[in-house]
Amino acid sequence: MNKKGQALGIAIVVAITFFMVGMISINFLRDEVTNARTSDKLNCGNASAISDGTKFACLAVDLVVPGFIITIILTAGGLIALKFI
Hints:
With about 80 residues, the protein is mainly α.
């Protein structure tokens, strides 16, 4: 096996490991997002009683988990794609 093939294999293993660790860590992140949205913190469940700034904060908190998933997928894919270039 040549050096480029070995580097690609290592990149794939590192990317899969990064993906798995990232997906496991989402469970911890999801609990914190749920905790931040509760009635004693941001009170996102009561849309009529909160200000526009708090509504924006609720949206920003809700985008944390999908943003984290997209970042994990792009980083793992980038590690593999980098070895092809």
